[in-house]
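Aim 2, interim progress: modelling of the threonylcarbamoyladenylate-bound target.
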Amino acid sequence: MKEHHPNKTTKSTKSDVVTRAAQTVQLGGLVAFPTETVYGLGADATNDVAVARIFDVKKRPHFNPLIVHFSDQASLAATVVLNEKAKKLAQAFWPGALTIVLPRKSNCQVSLLASAGLGTLAVRIPNHPLAHSLMKAANTPIAAPSANCSGSISPSTAAHVRESLGNKVDIILDGGPCKVGIESTVVDLSGSNPTLLRPGGIVCEELEKIIGPIKPSDSSNDKIRSPGMLSRHYAPSIPLRLNAKKANPGEAFLAFGATVNARHVNLSHIGDLKEAAANLFAMLRMLDRPNYKGIAVMKIPATGLGIAINDRLKRAAAIP
Ligand code: TXA
Ligand code: MG
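Predicted structure of the complex, ligand included:
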């Protein structure tokens, strides 16, 4: 097993490498690691800024919700509500190439940014010893999309990760080629009808043998549920007004950058887009109160993570 630093190659034992990778995760860094499906770009799922770094490095134009990885069902139980069907699928297919979307528990410690503001969370217990060593040593759930730039092919070797993300990742753990090579199957069990959100490593018929019919992925409703089509995403219940310079009477104000009134709720006083992304969903929820007429949001620069922030704000503003 090797570890790749972008600029140097170190010979170290497996446990050295895993310990360093786990420390990197705990300090809010990014670690690419193998799973049986594809390599993941991992960060501490409970750290908002670390999760924001994932979107930044992948250059995602919007905040797709991320899959959060756990080492066992006990650690996952505090995070999401496991219904009967989920328990059956977990029993049959975990650890494995299956991701289940479930309601977040009210005291869920995972960043709202990993859920893209939704009330649900995608969870998976992967089947790879190195992924497990990392999760155990870091002692925290790990949010991880595939470790590639947005729009390019998912990586199934450490070399693919290096080509796509290079020195933007703190550590790349090399566990050899991924056995499955395509992403996990994503099934949504958060509503009354199980829905296939993404076909993947485990064929849907295998899942249906255990829990009965699953709505196919190409139904029109499913398109709405897939990334970027945010009708199911969190939108405040009061109107959102964008590019605001100040709040109108009765409006809450969500600032960005230095403002005259330091007491304003501020996505980032220093104008840092990563910090703003990390705060976005939690602050929108905080200001979504019936005693306000609406939320006025200051202009956010349309560069880097600002593109995803603006995308999200525009969608939230469009929903009545
Ligand atoms: O095999 C895999 O699943 C890999 C490895 C690293 O685990 N991960 C992966 O993650 O492919 P990513 O982020 O590239 O894909 C996550 C998929 C997206 O299609 C996303 O929209 C969906 O899961 N997803 C995640 N959370 C969701 C949620 N709360 N509701 C609906 N869809 C969700
Ligand atoms: Mg992907």
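The CA atoms of residues 118 and 233 lie 5 Å apart. The first strand starts at residue 2 and ends at 4.
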